[in-house]
Amino acid sequence: MSSEVETSRDLTFRQLNGIPPLRFASLGMTTPLFTALHIYHDNAPHSSAMNMAIDEALLEHAAVPSIRFYQWHSPALSFGYFGKFADVADYSIERDLVRRWTGGGIVFHGDDLTYSIVIPASDTVFALSSLSLYEKIHRALCEAMATNGRAAELATVAALCERRSRINSAVIDRRYRYCFANPVRADVMIDDCKVAGSAQRRTRLGLLQQGSIQGVDLGNGLADRFAKALSANCIERKINEGILNRARELAHRKYGDDYWLRKR
């Protein structure tokens, strides 16, 4: 693990047990989180290792908060930094597997809208707590989905406890490791189903949040509306060759390495 790592946020339900129930205000128009935001529409499909590597390379180089939307060159599966390879090994024949640098559970990729947000340490927003950023980013996503006429909301601790009480514990035990079967506080919900979740990594350089949106209409400009809900000053950018070269290095010696994949 990099010596720069200060903490890795794995916002699991267990960590949040005992926190008093929260009720969120109306998900109407909110103040944009970022003064300016660089947008990368990375339309060229990449391997799992390269996608993770580009996210880390962006974190190393970004001077302005950035959001990257990206695709996968084949059906993929990512699992959190603290996850066990044994839990995903059976999928290796059908999916491109990768261990994320961020926390969280197992996420299936290919039909989702995958994104990453990078916040450099020099930006004032970086001073917010990881949970506050998680909530604010997902609140912006709810706002973007509302434009499509979908009543999205943030999960509360109280709602999660009530939801779990309705589900047989044996089912919970079998499905707990699957991210979208296990919503946590401030995940995005529609009709009691999780449609978006994220995981974070905070370092001295900044914060990386990787997210997936599933089970909703991903067309009709959802990505751009999401970006505009985060900032009124969105600037389209292309990933430069310097970042790509650094990403190729990281993909080769880290994310594509068997040791990284099987380290737990």
Low-confidence stretches: 1-29, 167-176
Helix content: 25-40%
Helix count from the secondary structure assignment: 8
Mean pLDDT: 84
Number of strands: 12
Rg, nearest Å: 17 Å
What's the CATH class label of the domain at 5-14 and 31-127 and 198-255?
Answer: Alpha Beta
Order of helices and strands: EHEHEEEEEHEHHEEEHEHH
CATH superfamily of the domain at 5-14 and 31-127 and 198-255: Bira Bifunctional Protein, Domain 2
Overview of the molecule:
- The chain has 264 residues and is of the alpha+beta class.
- The chain is globular, with a radius of gyration of 17 Å.
- It has eight helices and twelve strands.
- The strands form two sheets. Strands 1, 2, 3, 7, 8, 9, 10, 11 and 12 form a nine-stranded mixed sheet that branches. Strands 5-4-6 form a three-stranded mixed sheet, with helices on one face.
- The longest helix is centred in the middle third of the chain and has 17 residues, at 130-146.
- Helices cover 30% and strands 25% of the residues.
- A hairpin with a 2-residue loop joins strand 10 (193-203) and strand 11.
- It starts with a strand and ends with a helix.
- The chain has a domain at 5-14 and 31-127 and 198-255: Bira Bifunctional Protein, Domain 2 (BirA Bifunctional Protein, domain 2, 2-Layer Sandwich), CATH 3.30.930.10.
